[in-house]
Design the sequence.
């Protein structure tokens, strides 16, 4: 059985043929309470207001497999290093509605899990569709954290900072946000990153350069890097991202 079987198949989602190759220019229609409506796949605030809509569109219609692909890669690395996930205090960046958090909690069985997203509708969706998943869920801007959020994060002393899919295309976390996440990570903590290589998008290029510099400078010891299926484009082509797992030195 698919690990996404718990996501209900609702709304009769149908994607349109994209007019450009940009992932941010993908649109679909869905039947909501008997009415056919149209959406952009990255209009998160609108999608999260409707129960499960984003998850149905992404994980069923576009066959996204990033959360399970990342979870399996992480499990292999942690198993080889003989670590106990129950000891981990995890901060998930750009957590959205919680599908990767579901993997962290239920497949990897991490002990403590907190989340941050800039979109208040994301926290609303996570609490509505996956109640009790996160120990805490903050709505804040990683590039300009409120003092009370910064203080709370420092108190936790996260030994895992993770991100899945919240990268690139001008509508996700910028490099400055990921740098802040890395700063919040304790020494020898695990940094888990997801980025699309060889992409013309300027933000993707900047993110790749940033993570490569972290590794080359020795600030991040890379344990694993591999190409993994992300999802299908609405034109039917397969999209792959690199999963990077390392420890802060």
Sequence:
């Amino acid at each position: 059985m698919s690990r996404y079987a718990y996501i209900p198949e609702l709304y009769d989602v149908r994607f349109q043929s994209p007019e450009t190759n940009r992932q941010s220019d993908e649109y679909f229609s869905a039947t909501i309470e008997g009415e056919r409506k149209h959406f952009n796949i990255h209009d998160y605030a609108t999608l999260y207001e409707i129960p499960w809509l984003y998850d149905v569109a992404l994980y069923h219609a576009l066959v996204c497999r990033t959360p399970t692909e990342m979870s399996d890669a992480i499990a292999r690395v942690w198993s080889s290093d003989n670590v106990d996930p129950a000891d981990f205090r995890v901060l998930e960046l750009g957590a959205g509605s919680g599908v990767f958090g579901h993997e962290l909690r239920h497949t990897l069985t991490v002990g403590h899990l907190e989340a941050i997203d800039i979109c208040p509708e994301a926290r609303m969706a996570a609490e509505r569709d996956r109640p009790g998943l996160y120990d805490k869920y903050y709505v804040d801007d990683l590039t300009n954290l409120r003092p009370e959020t910064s203080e709370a994060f420092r108190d936790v002393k996260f030994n895992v900072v993770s991100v899945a899919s919240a990268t690139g295309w001008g509508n996700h976390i910028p490099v400055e946000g990921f740098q802040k996440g890395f700063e919040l990570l304790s020494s020898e903590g695990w940094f888990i990153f997801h980025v699309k290589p060889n992409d013309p998008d300027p933000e993707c290029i900047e993110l790749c350069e940033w993570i490569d510099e972290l590794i080359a400078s020795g600030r991040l010891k890379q344990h694993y890097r591999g190409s993994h299926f992300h999802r299908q484009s609405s034109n039917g082509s397969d999209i792959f991202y690199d999963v990077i797992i390392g420890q802060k030195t």
Observations:
- The longest strand covers residues 220-232.
- The helical segments are 44-48, 53-61, 66-80, 99-107, 120-129, 147-156, 175-184, 202-216.
